[in-house]
Amino acid sequence: MDIFQNLIKAKSISKLEKLVKIELGYLQESMEIKSIKITGDFFLHPEETIEKLEGSLVGVKLEKDSIKNKIEYILKNSEFYGFDVDSISNAIVDCVKKR
Amino acid sequence: MAVDEFLLGNTNDPVLRIFGWSRPCVSIGYFQSIDDIDYEKCKKEGVDVVRRITGGGAVFHDRELTYSFFTKNFPNNIMESYKEICQLIILALKRLGFEAKFSPLNDITINGKKVCGNAQTRKNNTLLQHGTILLDVDVDRMFSLLNVPLEKIEDKKIEDVKNRVMGISKKFEQVSDSLKSSAKEYFQCELIPYQLNQKDQDSCKKIMNEKYSNTDWIFRR
C-alpha cells in the first residue's frame, strides 16, 4: 500500500527547442509516479492535453518505455513544438537519476 | 486577454486587434510555472501579472505594440501557421524600413535581434495568434522580473542574452498604421473598424473577473 512507502520528490529541467521542467513525486519502493507537473515555454495544442497527460502518468512506473508509451498515446492526436516524446520521457526519468 | 478569449469564441470573420498597455504587465504562457517570474517583485513594482491561454514564454509588456489576429483559415501544421501569420508582421516592419526575418518557431528578428515574439492557440476552429512588437525595451528591468533559467542561457553570458532583444524605436501609431496597411495588402482586403457592443464588453469583463484576475488561474502551475 502507498502509505507504507516513502514519497520522494524530484525535479529535472531539459531543453530541446524549448524548456521543459518536471516536478515529480514517486513512491520509493514501487517506483510509481504519484504526482507530476510538466511546465515550460513549449507549445501544445490543444492546451488542455497537458492536464490529461499529467493525470495519465500517475500510477505509471518510472521506467522509460512505460512512460514513453503513455506519452505517445496521449499526444497522438495533438500538435506540439519545443519537445518530443523522447526528450520529455528522458526528463521524467532524469528526475530520479539527478536526485 | 479576456477580449482575446471572447473574440476566439465569437468571431467568424478574420479580426486584427491592435493595442498597447496602460501599465506594465508580465504575461506568462499557459504551461509555465509561476516560478518562472518574480511574482513578488512584479507586485511590488506595480507590474500586473496575467496568464495567457497560449503557450510560450514569459513576456514583459511595456513599450510595445501588441496585436491579436483571429482567423478560421489557417494551415494545420504549427510551423506553417506561424510562418504565414508572421509574414504580416514582417511586411509591416518592411514598410517601416526594416529587413525582418521569421525565426522559427515564433520569433521575428532584425539583424539577429528579437523584435517580435508570438504565440498561438486554436479553439472553435479559430486560430488566435497574438504577439508583441517591441518599440523600446528596458532589458535590465525585463530580466529582473523574469526568472530566466540557466538552462535557457546555457553557455552564453547574461549580457549577450540581453543584447538579443531590441526595440524598433518607432511610435505606436506608426507601427499600428503600418500593420493595418500591411494587413490590407497581405490579405487583399479592406479593414472594417469593429467596436465591441455593451453586451460583448460585459462578457469580456465577466471573463476577466472570473478567470484572468483570479489567482487560481494565475497560480494554476
Topology:
The complex is a heterodimer of chains A (99) and B (221).
Chain A lengths: L6 E9 L3 E9 L5 E8 L2 E3 L3 H9 L6 H11 L4 E3 L3 H13 L2
Antiparallel strand pairs in A: 1-2, 2-3, 4-5
Helix pairs in contact in A: 1-2, 2-3
Chain B lengths: L1 H9 L4 E5 L5 E4 L10 H6 L3 E4 L7 E3 L2 E8 L6 H18 L4 E4 L3 E4 L2 E11 L2 E9 L4 H7 L4 H4 L4 H5 L9 H16 L10 H15 L2 H4 L3
Parallel strand pairs in B: 2-3
Antiparallel strand pairs in B: 1-5, 2-4, 5-9, 6-7, 7-8, 8-9
Helix pairs in contact in B: 1-8, 3-7
Q: Which pair of chains forms the biggest interface, and how many residues does each contribute?
A: A-B, 23 and 28 residues
Q: Under the CATH scheme, which architecture of chain A would be assigned?
A: 2-Layer Sandwich
Order of helices and strands of chain A: EEEEHHEH
| Largest sheet, spatial ordering of strands of chain A | 1-2-3
Count the helices of chain B. How many? 9
How many distinct helices of chain A?
A: 3
Mean pLDDT of chain B: 92
Shape of chain A: globular
Q: Find the count of extended strands of chain B (DSSP E, 2+ residues).
A: 9
Taking all residues together, what is the mean pLDDT of chain A? Answer: 91
Structural class of chain A: alpha+beta
Helical residues, percent of chain A: 25-40%
Low-confidence stretches of chain A: none
Written account of the structure:
The complex is a heterodimer of chains A (99) and B (221). Chain A is an alpha+beta fold. Chain A has one domain: CO dehydrogenase flavoprotein, C-terminal domain (Enolase-like, domain 1). Chain A has helices at 49-57, 64-74, 85-97, and strands at residues 7-15, 19-27, 33-40, 43-45, 79-81. A 3-stranded antiparallel beta sheet of chain A has the order 1-2-3. The radius of gyration of chain A is 13 Å and the shape is globular. In chain A, 32% of the residues are buried. Chain B is an alpha+beta fold. In chain B, 38% of the residues lie in helices and 24% in strands. Chain B has helices spanning 2-10, 39-44, 78-95, 139-145, 150-153, 158-162, 172-187, 198-212, 215-218, and strands at 15-19, 25-28, 48-51, 59-61, 64-71, 100-103, 107-110, 113-123, 126-134. In chain B, β2, α2 and β3 form a beta-alpha-beta unit. Chain A binds chain B through residues 13-15, 17-19, 21, 37-47, 50, 79-82, and chain B through 29-33, 36, 53-58, 76-79, 105-106, 119-123, 149, 151-152, 154, 221.
